[in-house]
UniProtKB/TrEMBL annotation:
<feature type="signal peptide">
    <location>
        <begin position="1"/>
        <end position="16"/>
    </location>
</feature>
<dbReference type="InterPro" id="IPR012347">
    <property type="entry name" value="Ferritin-like"/>
</dbReference>
<feature type="domain" description="DUF4142">
    <location>
        <begin position="50"/>
        <end position="184"/>
    </location>
</feature>
<dbReference type="Pfam" id="PF13628">
    <property type="entry name" value="DUF4142"/>
</dbReference>
<protein>
    <submittedName>
        <fullName>DUF4142 domain-containing protein</fullName>
    </submittedName>
</protein>
<dbReference type="InterPro" id="IPR025419">
    <property type="entry name" value="DUF4142"/>
</dbReference>
<keyword id="KW-0732">Signal</keyword>
């Protein structure tokens, strides 16, 4: 029975990607739903459910950071902002790879694309140019990293799973560094 559930979890993302009718679902909400369903079926604890939700949120935030930072590498006018975007792309790329590997190991479904809210944020940012773009990008980074730092800080101590706890502890300093760098770059921008 356990092998069947594992096979079903591995096939589910493939089936979701192949079915045309599923394309209008929010990937973040769908990942949360799949994890809640698996957790409910396996009767695991509330802490394990929190771990899975953290993983989905971390993946979503990281994908958003990667997307907006890749755009900033092309569109930013401030050299400080371009440098920050380059740093974030490299470090969040590594974090995203570790997150995917950990999720696979723990049978946690992660979103495959940005959710509706994240896609809207990216669209709004893309529409801007010049100093307005730089300012909005840094504001988004500060907001995203503030929330991420809080979650990673909590889960670095409270995650049920030791590997998830270690992942959160490993990347917490990186997220703090990104938030501080965004704040410093924002201070240098003209008002």
């Amino acid at each position: 029975m356990r092998l069947f559930q594992l096979c079903a979890l591995l096939i589910l993302p493939w089936l979701a990607a192949c079915s045309g009718g599923e394309s209008n679902k929010d990937p973040v909400a769908e990942a949360k739903f799949q994890n809640e369903k698996r957790i409910g079926d396996e009767a695991v604890t509330e802490k394990q459910e929190r771990d899975a939700e953290f993983m989905v949120t971390a993946a979503s935030s990281s994908m958003t950071n990667l997307e907006i930072s890749q755009i900033a590498q092309r569109k930013a006018t401030s050299p400080d902002v371009k440098y920050l975007a380059q740093m974030i792309v490299g470090e969040h790329g590594n974090m995203q790879a570790d997150l995917k590997s950990l999720a696979q190991k723990k049978s946690i479904v992660l979103p495959t694309n940005l959710g509706e809210n994240q896609a809207k944020i990216v669209g709004e940012l893309t529409a801007l140019n010049g100093a307005g773009f730089d300012r909005k990008y840094l504001d988004l980074l500060e907001d995203i990293h503030k929330n991420s730092v809080d979650e990673f800080d909590d889960l670095s101590e409270d995650a049920y799973d030791g590997d998830i706890r270690a992942f959160a502890a490993k990347y917490l300093p990186t997220l703090k560094k990104h938030r501080e760098a965004a704040e410093q770059a924002a201070d240098k921008l003209p008002k």
